[in-house]
Structures are given as structure tokens and as C-alpha cells.
Amino acid sequence: MNSMLSRVRGVRGILTLSKSETSDSPRDLEAKGDLKVLSVAWNQDYSGFIVGTNRGFDVYSCNPMIKKSISRAPHELGFKTAEMLFLSNLFALVGNGYNNSEYPPHKVFVWDDHRNTCFCELAFKSEVIAVKLTREHIVVVLKQKVYVYSFNTLKVYRVIETSMNPKGLCCISHVETKAVLACPGFHPGQVQVHDLKRNVIKYIKAHDSAIACMTLTIDGSLLATASTKGTLIRIFNALDGTLLQEFRRGMERAEIYNLASSSNLRWVAASSDKGTLHVFRLRPDILSYSPASSSSFIRGILPKYFYENERSFAQFSLPASTKFIVGFGSENNVLLVGIDGSLIVLSSSNGRNLWPENVKFPETFLHGKKNNAVVVNRYGQFAK
Predict the structure, then answer these.
(1) Full-model pTM
(2) 283: which of 11, 127, 176, 235 is 20 to 30 A away, CA to CA?
(3) C-alpha atoms less than 13 angstroms from C-alpha of 63 in its C-beta half-sphere
(4) Are residues 12 and 95 in the same domain?
(5) Number of other residues whose CB lies within 10 A of the CB of residue 104
């Protein structure tokens, strides 16, 4: 544990308060100088997202409407990583500053916005790549280690060794009765899954190429992965490693930016540098998968080429120049936040099913009227 230090702070305000219920106008942004988005991240149930900027961070709630609820500006360097815990007052922040900055990139600050207090500071000897929050754990990802802290005691619960992980790949379930964590293993294409409550580890050979992206369903039962090749997305039983379903994103190599699974365990979405969002349908039978079932057993021993991978049932064209992070909203909406500060909302036409089979949304919907399938607004001008 000598590579890590943790400290609990007393009452100390580190952020300048400036609450805002509505977003800034373009004129206000121009008056303040260039606003740069450093990171965007959805919370655990897609009810809100947090934006790390070169000034600080902004929090947006998405239910029932999209609006800015919190804005904090500590100094000109801001935060390169910002995570929120559901729609609570707790945030994990990693500074973007060097050269003796108060907010260096090797520290994690857990901020209690209700008390205006940074009550926990976690310091490391190397740069923090990513942070994940649950109601029970604080997960800090370094280049070759993952630290899992107890949120109640602020003590290290587990230290996990990984292969080189420059993207900070890590995901964790959010159902309180379970605690499943997935991160890169020790070989290219390998994922290690930790059942933290049962103290069980499973190593899954997910791909032949290195892992580019992964996500767990909210209950930790299913693991979705994509490799640096970016052509296939695979769905595994997270606890025993069985391959349950395979999706084909395309034939050409692509960088998968983000994978997301809906809270109702019906859909998986993927965004990539090809400027396309793909939405895939999870088969209902994989949710009732049992290792003893004959069909699962047969699939487990057959070569991969014997069963056909499935195509997306819905696609949407995105600006290829922007990295989009996808999430699933209420009322069957798909939400995308861009690193350029843009937001795209895809909504179903009937309000019940996501989309009918083989629907491809044209770009002409981007600036359509109120009742069209898509609404687009720029960062700082989100729809009310």
C-alpha cells in the first residue's frame, strides 16, 4: 500500500460557489473567455451528467428536463475528470493542474456540495486515470492498478493489479445487493471480473485484440466488451464468463468510444469514431441463462463462427469529429453528450418501444420540430 496515501479533510471549501438553475448564454460564455470541455460522464442511472471544464465542473439533471443544476469554478485549470454519485451532492474530482497546483492529477477530491466541503482527499504516486463511484465504494484507476475504497470507512478495500490501462477502463455494478467490478486482465483481450462481496475472481478471454471499451449492466449480471479492432461487441455472463451474444458493429476497424446498457436490460448502445451510433437488442433468454441449460452448453463448446453475430436494429449518424458518450434516459430515450459540448436526444415516436425494426434516423432530423425523433442543442443551451 506504500504507493498510495489517503487523508480525510476537515471542513474546507475548495470551490467557488455559483449556483445556477439555467445554463449560460453564448454571450456570457464569450465574456468569460473560451470554455473548454475536458471530460463528460453520465451518472449511474443516466439521470444526470457531469462536465469537467477548464474552469471547474457543471452538473446537469435530465429528469424531467435537461437543465444545469450546479456550476463550480475553482480556478482557471479546472478538472480533467469529474464523476457524480446518482443525483446526490457527492462528486469525485481530479484536477487538471501541474506545477504545484492545488489540484494535481495524482489526487482525487471527493466533494460534498451540500456542506461545501472536501471531506476526502486520496493521493497517489502516479496520475489518476479514472474514478468510479457507487454508494458503497470509491474506485480509483491508475495505469496498472485499481484501488477500491469503502465509502463508509475511506479505507482500502481491495487493490487490483492490471495490465497497462492508459484509458482507465473499469466499470462496476450499482445494485446495492451486488458489487461486481470489471477491469482489464493481464493479457490482450482479457477482462477480470471481481465479485467483491463473494470474493470471487473470473478471467474472461473476451477478444484477441486489446480491450477498448467495456460496461456492466446495472446489476452486474452481464458484461459488454469491444476491442481495439471495433468490429464486434460481445455480451458475457459476468460471473462465469460464458459468451451469450455477439453483435457486429461493422466490417471496418473503428475506435469504440463508449458502451452503455439500458437499466431495463433490453438494449446496448455503442458510439464510435465512425460517426455512427448503433443500438443492439439483448435477447430475453440471456437474462435467464443457466450454466446447466443445454443450449448454453452447446453454445459454449461450438466455435464462434458456428453461430451468427447480430446486427444493430437502429443506427444514427453523428458528427464524426466529436467524441460522444451515450446513455439511456427515461421514456425510451437515448442521450448522447459530446466532448465538444453538444447534446443529442433520440426519442421513440410511440413512447413505448424504443424503435421499430431496422430504423435508421437520417441527419435531417437533427434540427427538426418539437415532435420529431431528435432534438439537438449546444452545450450551455440545453432544451428545457
Answers:
(1) 0.82
(2) 176
(3) 15
(4) yes
(5) 18
- More confident call, 244 vs 358: 244
| pLDDT above 50 for 30 | no
Handedness of CA 364, 367, 372, 373 (dihedral sign): positive
Question: Is 252 buried (19+), middle (13-18) or exposed (0-12) by CB count in 10 A?
Answer: exposed
* pLDDT tens-digit series, residues 38-65: 999 999 999 999 999 888 899 988 876 6
Whether residues 123 and 234 share a domain: the answer is no
- What CATH number is given to the structural domain containing 150? 2.130.10.10
DSSP 140-209: EE-SSEEEEEETTT--EEEEEE-S--TT---EE---TT--EEEEE-SSTTEEEEEETTTTEEEEEE--SS
Q: Which residues of 39-56 are buried (b: 16+ CB within 10 A; e: fewer)?
A: bbbbbbbbbbbbbbbbbb
The pLDDT > 70 percentage for the chain reads 74
Distance from C-alpha of 163 to C-alpha of 103, rounded to nearest angstrom: 27
Cell of 101: 497546483
pLDDT tens sequence across 189-210: 999 999 999 999 999 999 999 9
* Residue 216: other Cβ atoms inside 10 A: 23
Which alpha helices (H) appear in the chain, and where do they start and end? 26-32, 294-301
Q: Mean per-residue pLDDT for 327-333?
A: 79
Shared domain for 79 and 124, answered yes or no, is: yes
Mean pLDDT of 236-254: 95
